[in-house]
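As described in the Methods, two query proteins were run sequentially through the folding procedure within a single session, without resetting any intermediate state between them. The first query and its resulting structure tokens are shown here.
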Amino acid sequence: MKLSSPASCLFIFLLLCLPFATVQAQEQKRETPDSIRISLLTCASGEEIYSLFGHTAIRYENYTRGIDAVFNYGIFNFNAPNFILRFALGETDYQLGANNYERFAAEYYYLERDVWQQELNLTPQEKEKLIALLQENYRPENRVYRYNFFYDNCATRPRDLIEKSIEGTLEYADNMTDTNTGTSFRDLLHKYSEGHPWSRFGMDLCMGSQADKIINRRLMMFVPFYVQEYFNKARIIDKEGQTRPLVLNEEKIVITGSGETDRVSEGFTPMQAALLLFILIAAITIYGIRRRKTFWGIDLVLFFAAGVAGYILAFLALFSQHPAVSPNYLLFVFHPFHLFCLPCMLNKVRKRKRSRYMLANFIVLTLFILLWLVIPQRFPLAVLPLALCLLIRSASNLILTYNKI
């Protein structure tokens, strides 16, 4: 079939324009902004003990489908049966939760906790993989996990999931496995419990000598703020060897106006309470020695309290799955024998007879205080006046029965 001249020109023009139109369509498709954005959220510290160290979550935005959701691994039920016992045993179950972003932001604004957002520089394929991993984790049979404060928590889970979704390797700016940080678990507990002396004191009592070992940077990432810090400096090296920053940008998306200065502690501290108790016990003991009075009621209260504390510390050291609670050298001061031997010891004290238990306790506490600086565990300073209270009560019995040997 022979085409007319105008038709031939039109046909040739379309043939020439078709490849150009195809290329232009492909380029336009490549230039179209990704409709999915995934970000890491870091939440400021709260006032409750479980929120002192902040929180981490993953935000998933899909502009095409109108999705703006937050996934976080910090959901727990405080009213669950035996929650306190299970927490002490290290058998607490947390779960992955999903929430609307607006509700999430409103909650943290109400709690006066700022939130930072780090947009992740992931490829569409990496985003799809991360979303698939989140969806898989959110399945009812998968969403519950055994929580571990130092090794498997609301900060380490998002970190591990993001690392797993990357096609290539994630390289941090610092060596994450070297133990040249000069930082221990206890140092981090102290850092983020600033302004909460009673919470810090309780944690110090429960944490054993393992909490004082120097840890590497990766272990430090159990604290959400370290995940935030190390992510800012990390870069992705893809399979072709090309590098790109892990974080595209960071911004504060929930601003409450609440700062660290608002969280300064006021009130009676453990050290002040321990010193006051020591002064009272010392004064009563000196008066009792002069008047040849035993004041055995003080021994009852003091050794009973020390025995209860000892049972708790011994329980944690022997049965808890929590890391860093054993060995705990505070068991030389607070131990179950105070409670177990209390009836026999009080019977001796009331009859003004020398108690072998008081003698043994005097020797152990004297050695503990003398060796305070060389024992491989950092003790809260408030323990010293408490130990001295037990020491002088034992000394009182020895002094009052000295002439009866």
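Immediately afterward, the second query was submitted; its sequence and tokens are:
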Amino acid sequence: MATWRLLFSNNSVNLLYTRKLTTIKNIPKIKSDIEKNILPPKPKKPLNPYFLYFQSVRNKLQQEHPGIKYIELIKKVSQEWAKIDPTIKQKFQKQHDENYTVYKQKLDHYNNSITDDQRMLIIEELMKKKGVLEKNQTKQKLMELGKPKRPLSAYLIFLRNKKDSKDPKIPQKEWIKNLSNEWNKMTTEDKDKYYTEAKELQEKYNTDLKKWEQNMIQMGHFDLLRSNTKSKSNKSVNKYEE
């Protein structure tokens, strides 16, 4: 949340959005990806004392041990770091502290350079991402709870039945176009069997969906119900309470 206060400070309108956005899972990663597409690169954090030392001795050790593997090089440097004189470590600590002071100045300047338009654009992109994530989470939840799938239309049943006879040499787009033309030229009598099957599937779907929604009401998943089912369910509850 501290990052949000920094990014959206002194803007009471934006604070409303930040409270909503804190409900998004993995928000730091999502925000970072969005910022990379909108903002200039952030100043990089300075290396800690150990990695400053690693940089200073890496080339020398590679020359002394040609062909040494990277993992072995890291192990060797780590062993040397543990044994070196404390005054040498202090030298690298001082270098890190100086670099960090410069980094903080650059970071402050960077944060102050972000415009209100950029901040709002980040918020808008995050809100879009939030909507997509919530939609995907709802879909996943519906699948896990076994919600019946919508049945195929008559035309899609027709396409499904033609699938096995598709010539693999014909591109998918062209194949669909040819079948669409074929469907449009068919008589009502020829289409009737597909409409009949679609109607039977729809009736079964409606029955299965009502049973599923009754189960969801019993389980307390009112947020997954259709709006008209929610309305009927609320009326029933209110009537019972009266």
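The two ends are 45 Å apart (CA to CA). We note this only descriptively and draw no conclusion about the first query from it.
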